[in-house]
Specification:
The chain has 7 helices and 39 strands. It is mainly beta. The strands form 10 sheets. Strands 4, 34, 35, 36, 37 and 38 form a 6-stranded antiparallel beta sheet that branches. A 6-stranded mixed beta sheet has the order 18-19-22-23-28-27, with no helix packed on it. It has a 5-stranded antiparallel beta sheet with strand order 3-9-8-5-39, with no helix packed on it. A hairpin with a 6-residue loop joins strand 12 and strand 13. The chain is globular. Its cofactor is Fe(2+).
């Protein structure tokens, strides 16, 4: 289904693009829009049952016979135990999903991750493990003195790995952002082994968004906290096992970067990678370590220690992947936040950094379950007070030195509106260019970006895909063409698609030869979920595989092609 119209039930109260000022010849846009009549999505953040054995789906349309493999998805699926409830969307217990595609047919299964958090909560029938936005209450079976003393205990990191599926040395793991991952069997979603990053390298966690080099080396980032304060660490994991039971053996810290304020390091969800560099984005979403360390004593959740400081710049740090050398040149831009990067590549002495950005870093605090379950005017108000996320490109000059001209734009790339000006010997100030036209405003911006990763990651590319956000979760699928900044759209009123997964066709010639897979949920229909299959080139719908179960809206996943 391809359309460019908006639902009649949504009344666009105002949509204005005001050209407020011009910096270096580039107009700055101030975008204001407000919507009313948003549909409730409460059923999408409701606890659901697992489906531990594969079940058949009803396929409408035709799934190409060449696609053969599994779409693996991760996200929260349980939001309460007994009379205790989670506060934040990120807190729900991880549920793993598998859509197995073969010969034009699809089966579905799901399982809760058998984490210690899930097992302990289930055994006690209450929340006993604190999560990002929920502080577990003291054991009511303890006496008042024991409950008081428990406030002085350090909060244990959760192993509720609900963010994504990741791959190390050919094995699948599910990950969150603590030091714990779980190795899982992609064939039956069985939880196999709990793995602790800190047993292999000196880090206290790692992101759920690693990057993969063509030789199989995996790169990631993780913080460490010691006597010298916080450090940002670039991690590499070798591609091969030395033993069949290997997990993270051979992992090493490539380099460490000191935060601008060691007691208030930046929060980051992911990072970027080009052919020769890892790019760390130090954004002004800050973590107050004193508040985090004392959150249990203060009776607050960990999220209470995270805040947005718009007075600080966002800084890009470049790290040589081979030597681990951190560039002395720091690339600054105004305060922006980013959760997901699109791609990064080098060309003609520049590094192009493409990512989804917002002018505000407070979105993480808006995704409380009580907000997601609102309706009517209260729901509209939550959405309309949130900043939109748009795809942008920053152009970073790689050969800056003392002889580089100052106070002039170093970006010599034709047809590029981005600017980069050397302020001092080791400081370049960058302004972005938009990777979209005005039509993206109609779809609320773009998040959950995906590319043809195997072919295009760290290389020049033309297309990326994502979800449009005219709601608190994705409500459309978008294909962006960087050649002319146009888009294609799949949209159907009342349906909410997940992060798209691009699957290249086996005889692909063009970059967009393949399929887009997305799990689509319908909150107004009981058991109204389906796997959507689109032709990635023309974005036309090919098929749906209806799943006779209820699902919660998830986060991230991956497609594993069958051999």
């Amino acid at each position: 289904m391809q359309t460019l119209w908006l639902p009649n039930s949504l009344i666009v109260k105002k949509m204005a693009i005001s050209l407020l000022s011009v910096d270096n010849g580039k107009a700055k846009e101030c975008i204001t829009s407000a919507l009313t009549g948003l549909e409730t999505i409460e059923p999408l953040v409701r606890s659901v049952e697992e489906t531990p054995e594969p079940i058949s789906t009803e396929v409408q349309g035709t799934i190409p016979s060449w696609i053969n493999g599994k779409l693996l998805r991760n996200g929260p699926g349980k939001f309460e135990f007994g009379n205790t409830h989670y506060n934040h969307w990120f807190d729900g217990m991880a549920m793993l999903h598998q859509f197995k595609i073969a010969n034009g047919q699809v089966t579905y299964m799901s399982r809760f991750l058998n984490s210690d958090a899930y097992k302990n909560n289930s055994e006690k029938d209450r929340i006993v493990m604190s999560e990002f936005g929920t502080l577990a209450m003291a054991d009511p079976c303890k006496n008042i003195f024991q409950r008081f003393l428990s406030r002085f205990e350090m909060m244990a990191p959760t192993d509720n790995a609900s963010v994504s599926f990741v791959k190390y040395k050919g094995d699948y793991f599910v990950s969150t952002e603590t030091n714990f991952m779980h190795k899982v069997n992609p064939n039956n979603l069985e939880t196999l082994e709990k793995v602790d990053w800190s047993k292999f390298i000196a880090v206290n966690g790692a992101t759920a968004h690693p990057h993969y080099d063509s030789d199989g080396t995996t790169y990631n980032m993780g913080n460490s906290y010691g006597s010298k304060g916080a450090q940002y660490n670039i991690i590499s994991v070798p591609p091969e096992k030395t033993d069949a039971k290997d997990t993270l053996q051979g992992a090493k810290i490539l380099c460490s970067i000191a935060p601008r304020n060691k007691s208030h390091p930046s929060y980051y969800h992911s990072f970027a990678m080009s052919e020769n560099y890892v790019v760390f984005i130090e954004q002004p979403i800050k973590m107050d370590l004193l508040k985090i360390v004392t959150c249990k004593l203060r009776g607050k959740a960990l999220s209470d220690g995270i805040y947005w400081d718009p007075k600080q710049d966002t800084v890009f740090h470049l790290v040589d992947k081979q030597s681990g050398e951190v560039s002395s040149v720091k690339y600054h831009t105004k305060a922006i936040s980013t959760f997901h990067q699109i791609n990064a590549f080098e060309e003609d002495g520049f590094l192009m950094l493409d990512m989804c950005c917002s002018e505000d870093g407070q979105a993480i605090n808006n995704y409380l379950i009580q907000n997601l379950r609102k309706s009517g005017d209260a729901l509209d108000e939550v959405y309309n007070t949130m900043s939109r996320v748009f795809p942008r490109r920053f152009v970073l000059p790689l050969h800056v030195n003392g002889e580089s001209p100052s106070d002039q734009n170093l970006n010599t790339r034709p047809f590029s509106a981005a600017t980069c000006v050397q302020i001092s010997k080791d400081k370049v100030f960058c302004q972005h260019e938009d990777l979209h036209g005005d039509d993206l405003l109609e779809y609320g911006g773009l998040e959950f970006p995906q590319i043809n990763y195997r072919r295009c990651n760290t290389r020049p590319y033309r297309y990326f895909y994502g979800c449009g956000f005219r709601h608190l979760v994705g409500d459309s699928l978008l294909k962006m063409d960087l050649k002319d900044k146009t888009l294609k759209v799949w949209y159907q009123k009342g349906f909410f698609p997940s992060e798209p997964a691009f699957v290249p066709s086996p005889d692909a010639v063009e970059e967009d030869d393949g399929l887009i897979l997305s799990v689509v949920l319908c909150p107004s229909q009981d058991k109204g979920a389906f796997l959507l299959v689109l032709d990635a080139k023309n974005f036309e719908e090919l098929a749906r595989a209806y799943v006779p179960v209820n699902m919660a809206y998830g986060f991230h996943g991956t497609f594993e092609a069958s051999a």
